[in-house]
Amino acid sequence: MQRQIIDKIEQFDTIIIHRHVRPDPDAYGSQMGLQKLIQHNYPTKKVYAVGEHEPSLDFLGTPDVITDDVYEGALVIVTDTANTERVDDKRHTKGAVLIKIDHHPNDDVYGDIVWVDTTASSVSELIFDFFELGQRVKGWTLPTASARLLYAGIVGDTGRFRYPSATLKTFTAAGKLITYDFDREALYNGMYELERKVLQLQGYIYQNFTMDENGTGRMDITRGVLEQFNTTASEASLLVSSLGNVKGMKAWVMFIEEADSIRIRLRSKGPVINGLAKEFGGGGHPLASGASAANWDEANASYQRLQEICK
Ligand SMILES: [Mn+2]
């Protein structure tokens, strides 16, 4: 599989790398880490990393902006993205060949070549693995910029090596990556900024959520709240699961107000909620799904439905 991917990379002059919407450090790290790895070893190739610009990740890099014609005859690689729905920039199908590299369960098998390894802590870890193969068979070297990005991705997805997903392989990769000459402290500062904002918002959520007598929870994150905590809707989304820690909570919804709609993010510990998500034009898994509401009236209606489901 990885050999096939190396062949494709060598075959194409233009390579465009995508990742998921509402990016996190592993999305940026795997995408841009791979971009810089390829660019460094094949300087004549054109290698782009695309997707929406996320200001809170500027310490890692900024995405490239390209026109549609660049996709003609190009190789497209999508990293860290389980399903097509979550691919940032839907032009990913416009190239000649599509490759998926991911570590989430492979429910949506998209692409001509699929490399999914759910035992990996992060896709950044997989890209490091990929580099080592390239090193053995093609004599690749890893540029420091790439090492820095991959390290950030691993640190991000493992919660600084705290999660059980951090294996011997993860630590081995991280151990090799820190031998490159990048400023680890500056990197941690950037990540700390992200974590600090999220922790403050989490405190606010624990103080302001509501729960009815049946264990149906609700939390509204308005534009005002996002501004108050200087966070984005994507950062707030990371906290949906945190309400599961509340005693007696059975199922809950977090409404996150975006520019032109309200995201409905549903979680449950029993009652099946993806039917409700479908009713509101969304979908997902039985215990974790989402939809979107045009306004607060619609959002309120979805909460009422959730209350009925939990009765
Ligand atoms: Mn990831």
Automatic annotation (TrEMBL):
It holds the Pfam family DHH. SUPFAM superfamilies: DHH phosphoesterases. Residues 15-154 form the DDH domain. One of its GO terms (molecular function) is nucleic acid binding. InterPro entries: DDH_dom, DHH_sf, DHHA1_dom, Oligoribo/pAp-PDE_c-di-AMP_PDE. Residues 228-310 form the DHHA1 domain. PANTHER family: BIFUNCTIONAL OLIGORIBONUCLEASE AND PAP PHOSPHATASE NRNA. The gene is nrnA_2. This is Bifunctional oligoribonuclease and PAP phosphatase NrnA.
